[in-house]
Amino acid sequence: MLAYIDWFTSSDIFTFPESLPLIGGLPVRWYGVMFATAFLLGYQVISYFFKKEGRPLEQADELLLYAMIATVLGARMGHYFFYEYPTLLSNPGHFFWSMIRPPYAGLASHGAAIGLFLAFYLYVRKHKDISYLYVTDRVVPTVALGGACIRIGNLMNSEIVGKETDVPWAFKFYNDPSLNHDYFAVVPRHPAQLYEALSCIVLFVILFMIWNKKKEKTQEGLMTGVFMVVLFILRFFYEFIKENQVSFEDGMSLNMGQWLSIPAILFGLGVLWYSFKNKKAV
Q: Which family does it belong to (predicted)?
């Protein structure tokens, strides 16, 4: 029986030759590629939805722009507010600069969710023929797919690792940045990134099936509610098998990710309640 999987992957895919102008010596990293892939796949899915429902693809283009800006800014702001608030207070100027400047070292999914919901409010104010929940219902499947891409990027980076375990599919993360190349400290761990990636793919399939059954007549808010409840319940329980992201979480009964997941779950339940109470098809 397989005892564990040795995971030696590098965060870099390749580095451009030094001889090339402008980009010479720059590395192409797995996380960046998966981040871009998330938006590319998301655009394809939203365009498919809009095309099948007879909406202009220009609206899908604009929605992608809103989503890209909101994801990056929301995730970066969330990282500082939720995980590095003392740094934010001590040097706000650095915060605003690092928030928009790649590479994005530190992204909080809860912050991205807040940013997206705010961006969609601005979007529907401009496109008054579209309801707010119509937009969120069409976007959440792409967010699930994007979440899978991001977690695969985390896996390639050997970050957000799980706790020590003896399950047969455990990973030994030899390039975990927290180890400082101390290979004697490497122990088999849960591949928590892989668990979350697979869960996101399954969630995407479920949401797509819900939409595909009735398309434009899908019950308003149903997909958004299912997404929020399922994703963040899973996130809450996955945190029990993941190492804490920052040191201040070590003394907490629930870590920051779990505390932030609770209002997200309650929000999703509220959307489901609204959806079934009104049973309104878009």
A: Belongs to the Lgt family.
